[in-house]
Hints:
- The chain is of the alpha/beta class.
- It has helices spanning about 5-15, 35-50, 65-75, 95, 105-110, 115, 120-125, 150-155, 165-175, 185-200, 205-210, 215-220, 225-235, 245-255, 265-275, 310-325, 325-335, 350-360, 370, 375-390, 395-410, and strands spanning about 25-30, 55-60, 85, 125-130, 130, 135, 145-150, 180, 260, 280-285, 295, 300, 365.
- The longest helix is centred in the middle third of the chain and has 16 residues, at about 185-200.
Amino acid sequence: MNFRSVAAALAASVVLPFSMAQATDLEVTHWWTSGGEAAAVAELAKAFDATGNHWVDGAIAGSGGTARPIMISRITGGDPMGATQFNHGRQAEELVQAGLMRDLTDIAEKEGWKDFIRPAGLLDSCTLDGKIYCVPVNIHSQQWLWLSNAAFEKAGIPVPKNWDEYVAAAPKLEAAGIIPLAVGQQPWQTTLAFQVILVALAGPDAYQKVFGDKDEDFAGGADMAKVFKAAVDARGMSKGSNVQNWNDATTMVITGKAAGQIMGDWAQGEFQVAGQVAGKDYTCLPGLGVNEVIQTGGDAFYFPKLTDPAKTEAQGVLASTMLSPATQVAFNLKKGSLPVRGDVDLNAANDCMKKGLDILAKGKIIPAPDQLMSADSLTQVNDLLVEFFNTPAITAEDLQKRFAAIVASAD
Ligand code: GAL
């Protein structure tokens, strides 16, 4: 090292918050490619680049369902990235068990993650045999119905306040040439719609019995029948919504082509990018206006074990950066999710985000399916629901029977 570079390194280590001695490029993979998602992930990249390191963006287009197998095969195939998104829960369980993921416990203890990450279940989902393997970056809930105020105005009916009013509005919407419910055709989206209906109509205890306790009798029983009937309503209301991506379905709501979408709170990112205002241009009904609870799943970053010490060092810097109060606010405001820290200033939150924060403060929370059921079992549920949404001949009774059979063998 010549004098000039020594001086530069020294100056950098004084000015910048993290050691610059080992600044390096780090590839980060994720499936955030919609307008709102890209705006949010840019905040993470900006914060990491400010440490002198460099975020090499490894966006994988499609969806989590497309991205996860690619991420997993790179890690198991000996070509690991520096960091990668998964939903917090059980998606990375086997990678951790195989010893391929970096243990972050020392950083977590030094920075006191346990003291400020809320709810505690998020960190529990990152923990295996007492060791912490991931950084939760947000709380994303799926329990939302997004409605286009303009679509209801065009149909001459008030914006519904709950699921039953929405179903009742469908014929008038159709008569006005509006698709009542936009549903993207990727498997996870039909499952999302189904389980949101389940929590809303049968309640959080029923959801726990089915996805948590894997109680097949309950899943196949009388208390659950209304959920499968509502799934038939949803299928009918989504006729003609021939899009794949969730954000294309959101665009149908933004443009008033469709009246509503059941989707996670990440949809807010799209409304924001389109310049729409919560309460004015669109309405959000948490828990479909019936059972106001939110799932506290979301996204977490995992750090595959690497041999290069500079990259290993940079992984630690990225982990800390993602949890810093400033990054948590900037990222989550764009993402539509809630920060994992309760000690940050969220004055800038919009109406829908405020509803989410209020539900969280009341403790009305449930875990996400990924936190309860294995990835394999959830794939079976996905397959069944895609078939159901595309096959009008499958009745509510058939669906319930087949769903209960999956629950019986689920882990
Ligand atoms: C989820 C993820 C969200 C959102 C969504 C759609 O799995 O948790 O952050 O991006 O996929 O891409």
